[in-house]
Amino acid sequence: MREIDRTGRLPAARSEDREVLCLYLAAQMNRTPERRTVVLFPQAVKAYAKDRPLDYALVAEYLEREHLGFAPQPAEIEGAWSWLQGVIAMYGVPSQTDAIYATLGTVDDLMPHFRSRHWQLEVSHKADFLTSDAPLILWKPNSKEDAYKGFGLLDAHQIRFPLDPRKQLVLTRGTGTSVADVSARRVERCNTDLADTCEQVIVGHPLRPTWQDKVELRERGPRLRFNQAPGVRVGPGGRRQPMGDVIHHWTSRR
User: Fold this and answer.
1) Cα separation of 37 and 163, whole Å?
2) What is the pLDDT of residue 204?
3) How do beta strands 158-164 and 137-139 pair?
């Protein structure tokens, strides 16, 4: 980070400093509350249940009253209930330690996705980039698919990470310039995306609160979502074969 400040440039591809940044980005991506929620969902349901049995009705109640804040569709209840039963049957109720191992244990698997992208340093001369408790942002244009599926490193159009109030690292597909001056409007859009995807906290420059005031935190941040529906396997020649019900979970965009 100091070297980027000193030179105004990003570390060269395949350099040791670039590799360290890849590791840092991977750790930042996996250390968030959002990632732990996936592993600790059974623990959260059990804590909510107290002495009540874990059953379909309780999962439906937990989703509506605690987890989502609205009444889920039957397919979401089915998915959450089936997934909960499967996890407990195979592993028991995961602990906080299990969550740490499960999230940080996959850091090395993420690094190739960062290495393979084009790296660009965005520089703002007027507006401040904000950061948050989940500063690494995966971004792609809004889609109807957001209602029932998520997206990850493979299909994200941009991977963004604010470095300081005036600089942001952006990883994209393809090629381009290594440094780009960006408008205040671009910074505002990035700050809005960051606020939408944070868990609870955004952070800005203490002497320039204007940029924090331009964004609004939602009552609930991104949430772990579930779905259960008939799966279809597409074979050679486009032949479609049923494969039974499939459980899908993802994290909402906002």
Assistant:
1) 26
2) 92
3) antiparallel
**Tokens 């937990």 belong to which residue?**
62
Do 106 and 152 meet the contact criterion of CB atoms below 8 Å apart?
Answer: no
User: Rounded to whole angstroms, how far apart are CA atoms 54 and 173?
Assistant: 45
Q: What are phi and psi of 6, to 5 degrees?
A: -70, -45
Residue ranges of E strands in the chain: 118-124, 131-132, 137-139, 158-164, 167-172, 179-182, 202-203, 224-234, 240-251
**pLDDT by 10-residue block (mean), the chain, 254 residues:** 87 94 94 88 97 96 96 96 96 93 90 96 96 94 86 94 96 92 97 92 88 86 91 89 91 81
Give the Cα separation of 129 and 187 in Å (integer): 6
Structure tokens at 123: 């520089």
Distance (Å, whole) CA 38 – CA 34? 7
Helices (H), 72-197: 74-91, 96-104, 107-115, 184-197
Find the distance separating the first CA and the last CA of the chain, reported in whole Å.
29
Q: Residue 144, SS3?
A: helix
